[in-house]
Prior knowledge:
Elements: H1 3-7, H2 17-27, H3 34-41, H4 45-55, H5 69-75, H6 78-92, H7 102-122, H8 127-136, H9 139-147, H10 149-158, H11 166-174, H12 178-188, H13 193-200, H14 213-229, H15 234-240, H16 243-249, H17 253-257
Amino acid sequence: MDLNTLLAQPFALPSIPKVAAVLLSELKLESPDLKKVTQVISTDPALTARVLQLANSGYFKMSGKVSSASEALALLKLQHVRAMAQDAASTSSIKTVPGIQLHPFWDYSLNVARLSRSLAGVVRQNQGAAFTCGLIHAVGELAIHLVLPEKAALLDENYPPLSLKRARAERKLLGFCYAQVGAGLARKWHFPQAMVDALEHQYAPFDNNVYEPLAGVIHLATWRARAKEARMSSRQLAVSFPGTVGVALGLDIDMVLQQDPIDWSAQSPGRALLV
């Protein structure tokens, strides 16, 4: 199956059950707290993707301009958000993804989002777009596991979904990787072009004919988060650090590691709803 065929397949990205429930509860109030609604949605990759997809649709005439959940929710009506939340809540409790442990995956995605936002602030890139890209950067991995479970299982045997070598292994077996799938979805959903480029080239930022700094930010944030998942030693961190990308952004390994404010010992989906 080629990339375009995969992107044409019907599948739904799973939401975090606790987040969907909290969101629906807040939206049932007579006067929902819009700040809390934004914060809750911003912890969930699927919900964030949904609100951006809707906000960038032709209906609002903002195609390719909305890059964060807060911007999206400034456009959407509450009935749109309620309908989305109800749909997410109805499917989140039964949705599984073969080969993916969803709770660690959701934690990891939020950690990459936070790191991306922090790094973007250092190099003066759009922090909202960086957070969104970090949060949804691996939704292509979910799509691969949902649409191609047998091939994904073959990859999982030697290269777990969060392995630093995962993208290379996917390219070798499939001809594409999760980054290209995520970018294809973002393009299909009419996300801003800079975000599409960042998602597509996050694995290899210099493959792009026009270097997109946001791709470098996501690349470094992903390296840090996956290295942490792999419990790399200080020596392993130094050896694996993507120095070329760091130089392009003016960041060395110490500067990247300093942007890691996460308590990695106490992560659980939906626990930290305020981001």
